[in-house]
Amino acid sequence: MRSERPPALFVALAAVGVAFFVLPLVGLVSRASWQTALGDLTSPEALTALRLSLVVSLAATALALLLGVPLAWIYARVPFRGRDVIRALTTLPMILPPVVGGVALLFAFGRRGLVGQALDAMFGIRIPFTTAGAILAATFVAMPFLVLTVESGLRSMDRRYEDAARTLGAGRWLVFRRVTLPLIAPSVFAGAVLCWARALGEFGATITFAGNLPGTTQTLPLAVYIALETRPEVAIMLSLVLLGVSLFILIAMRDRYLRGV
Amino acid sequence: MRAPFVIVTAVALLVAACAEPNPTGTPQIKDINVFAAASLTDAFTRVYDEYAKSNARVRFIFNFGSSSTLATQITNGAPADLFASADQANMQKIVDAMLTDGTPTAFATNRLEIAVLPGNPKKISSLADLARSDVILVLAAPTVPAGKYALEALSKTGVSAKPQSQEVDVRAVLNKVSLGEADAGIVYVTDVKSAGGRVTGVAIPEEQQVLARYPIAVVKSSKNAELAHGFMDYVLSPAGQNVLAEFGFSKP
Q1: How far A68 CA sits from the closest chain B CA (Å)?
Q2: In order of start, what are the domains of chain B with their CATH numbers?
Q3: Sheet containing strand B112-116, strands side by side
Q4: Which residues have C-beta within 8 Å of that of residue B232, sequence separation ≥ 6?
Q5: Which of B179, B183, B198, B199 to mutate to test the interface with A (most CBs of A within 10 A)?
Q6: Residue A129: which of B164, B168, B180 has the nearest Cβ?
Q7: In the CATH scheme, what is the homologous superfamily, with its name and number, of domain A36-257?
Q8: In this predicted structure, what is the pLDDT of residue A49?
Q9: Closest Cα partner for A237 from A49, A29, A60?
Q10: What's the pTM?
Q11: ipTM more than 0.90?
């Protein structure tokens, strides 16, 4: 990269831009009560939320991998009519307000929803107010990150390796497992980490669709929201946990996302 | 070519949005930020409609939410001019932070009611029924007034009902019932009334009732304290009280 002396105006505006993002974080850190940090983080309400968030975000990532990798493969390899529209629909939650996603999920999987009604009538399965509901909400908002990352990995990989394997007599499944997957492993990993981070931070769809109950659906962000009014010191500590995890992920993946193209 | 145009348009819109709406000659319209308990959503919107008929120069911007959220926002410096809480405790937070202009005044009372699905398919007739295992119960979080009141009513009754969700405010409880996700929720009488036919109300007998008192106060940092006091006086006046009564609120 060629270095260049920046115009003063750019430096000034850029500094304001940086301050805009950094000041809230400093504000959060400045309000933290470090003396009670350990006690706050190990308080029952915090531990319950931490545990549940871990379960929900990991399960959402697993579900996203299961459904998202095949989806990405089809997007990358199979040109079909309406592919762009379908892709747009499945990545919509990246920019859709999560609360809208939550309402939409209710109308699909809620007790009166399109699918939810049948699930309830046939199997007695109800999704809202359950941990499964929180997992669905998290998957809904987070899976697009995985799909897009894996798709771009598939598009940029060298397909001659697959051709070579196939000429050597390998079947499609074997090629996918032994050649394609290892080649796109970095993309799958990056997609999974991004997806996990987004799932961990999910709030709007969860509280709208799954509800808010400690131990069942009250994930970290929900616990932060509720605790802010009664135990702000706990809310701040939990916020710092989320902040730390997010920052760590972005820095760890800087080669992929922070260094431009 | 196109990018600068977009930027210029965006900046122009931003400036227009931020600018004071002050066309030459006409008196300036003042904005009053009213932070009000979620249960006041419909009633206060109507009170304002009535008030605005004779006060065209004031525009009210409502921020409805749980009283505890609003109190937290105000103590952290949110630009509220007026605060109407669904309980004394959250108003007290503002008083303790020395943020009120004058003493808070009670302007209404409210009572609890069980909201159930239209027609009451689960045949819920009392608070005790809420503990039944086939009833999906939703309450407001214990941090918000409606949730606290609901727990009080349940404990008065000696019922240990477990909610499936603790919603962020009473309106969210009402929504979960009107959407059919929950079978029952404990809300205010006024919420059932304003939901129309979307939920059915099951009355809670007197001895299990909890009386919710709503105080209102002008916030000290208000730049339009006089106008805020004006609206507060209107809420307390017979005209304002009549509107509140239409929505099911009782006199303080």
Answers
A1: 29
A2: 16-109+213-246 (3.40.190.10), 112-208 (3.40.190.10)
A3: B165-167, B137-140, B184-188, B112-116, B200-203
A4: B82, B105, B107, B216, B217, B218
A5: B179
A6: B164
A7: MetI-like (1.10.3720.10)
A8: 94
A9: A29
A10: 0.83
A11: no
